[in-house]
Amino acid sequence: MNSFFVVVALLVGLVISFGCVDQGIVMPVTNAQVLLRSTCITSSDLNNYNTGYFDGNLVFVDNNILCFVSPNDLNIDVNSGTVNHSLLTNLGWSVAGHVIDTDFLPENTLTESLGTGALRWLNLFVQNINSEEIDTYNLVASEDVNVGGNAYLDGNIFGNTIYGGMYDHNADGVSIPFGVQYTYYFFTGGTCGMLNGFDCNTISGELTANYGGVYEVHYEAIGVGQNNHIYHTMIFINDVNNVNTLSHTLHDAGTVSTLVGMGHIKLVVGDKVSLRIQDYSGTSSGTVYNWNMILKRIGN
């Protein structure tokens, strides 16, 4: 009986000497730390410690018992012991169906790679890619590509831009009565040109924009009018004239006048663009043989 009390006293002394207090152990643990914790840790706080490594074995907690597991058997939940977590370095990658349910992080920043130039993954399926740089041999996008900064290209760009046009040619000429001075009259009855991003109405002589932005516009009109009368042509957006597109000519009897204009205009979706002409000098009657209007989107 006295020997029993001596043994108990020695065990108590060991517990006191180890301290039996939280040593702030951070996994993976050292040999001495595992011995310390396994000697004096209590069942009430055992499950508060995460897994770690000890002499090549995985250390984890299961049912309030500190356990050691071989690296060959690593699909074990740290608290319940159920198959849940996986250690990537020890998985048999030939076995399909492995699932990672936590963040997948490299050991050090900007030092490890996923694949190599020779050994590559076939397809990468993700929701979002946040990257400082993407180096690729061929980029294929099945939907929109939004670039927040500048885009620099050494090669050519092949693809469509937004454009539209309307024109007319009549060898016999089309009469335009200028019944009111300073009033602009539409060029109508033309033909829709190539369209990508515009709706065309030849009856009203208007192109309706499907996309907003800055457009470059070019036009030309050829015809005859009253001798010594000044004629102006100009691009209108809805019913607002754009002075930066105005062209001016003084018509001489027996000649054919050509009015050519160009400029930049700002459109929003639904804007109607038309080419119009006025007799600035008074009233008259004119004849138009040819006119053409072209728009091309060049920016936002």
What does this structure look like?
The chain is mostly beta strands. The protein folds into 2 domains: 2-90, no CATH class; 163-299, Sandwich (Jelly Rolls). 9% of the residues lie in helices and 36% in strands. It is built from 2 helices and 14 strands, in the order ααββββββββββββββ. It has helices at 2-18, 31-40; strands spanning 52-54, 57-62, 65-69, 163-178, 185-186, 191-192, 198-201, 206-209, 213-224, 230-237, 240-250, 257-267, 272-279, 284-299. Strands 5, 7, 8, 10, 11 and 13 form a 6-stranded antiparallel beta sheet that branches. A 5-stranded antiparallel beta sheet has the order 6-4-14-9-12, with no helix packed on it. A 3-stranded antiparallel beta sheet has the order 1-2-3, with helices on one face. The longest helix has 17 residues, at 2-18. It starts with a helix and ends with a strand. Mean pLDDT is 76; it is low at 1-57 and 69-89.
